[in-house]
Amino acid sequence: MNSAPHGNPGQENLEPAVGIARCQGSLLVRAAQVVECKGNRVIVEVMGQEGCARCEQGGGCGAGLFIRSQRWHLEVVAPKPLAIGEVVSLALPRKTLSLLAATVYALPLVFALIIAGVGQGLFEAPWMAPVGFFVGLLGSILGLHYFLKEQRERFRPRLVF
């Protein structure tokens, strides 16, 4: 299922098997297969990863709980024409993934804690901190939803050759 190596004949094949994630310098790379072409964009199918044999038997480290086992489709820009069935590599810079994780997970929690603290400081009611926390959490999630709509391309994986 792996396509032939690109580039020089002596160069090693950098494409992983479909569904396998790996690191390549400062990039996180994952293989996918082209399933549809739409002009200069293609839809690729990313295979889910399998856990180790121990995880499948329930005796592993538990990392298998966090592995996506189903396939999903992703639309990406294709800088050159690709054929349906071709195996390609998707890459996302580690910095981008770290920034996205911090933005999506840490920022709402920090904002919610600040709102809860301010609410508790301004009002003496014992229920103000939990209400402030959940209002801050929901408000920051909605705000991020609209902010990230405009930033979506920044966090989208790119094809690498």
TrEMBL record:
InterPro entries recorded: SigmaE_reg_RseC_MucC (IPR007359)
Keywords from the UniProt entry: Membrane, Transmembrane, Transmembrane helix
Record bears the keyword Transmembrane: yes
Transmembrane segment boundaries: 99-121, 127-148
Domain of life: Bacteria
Keyword hit for Transmembrane: yes
Protein's name according to its UniProt entry: Fis family transcriptional regulator
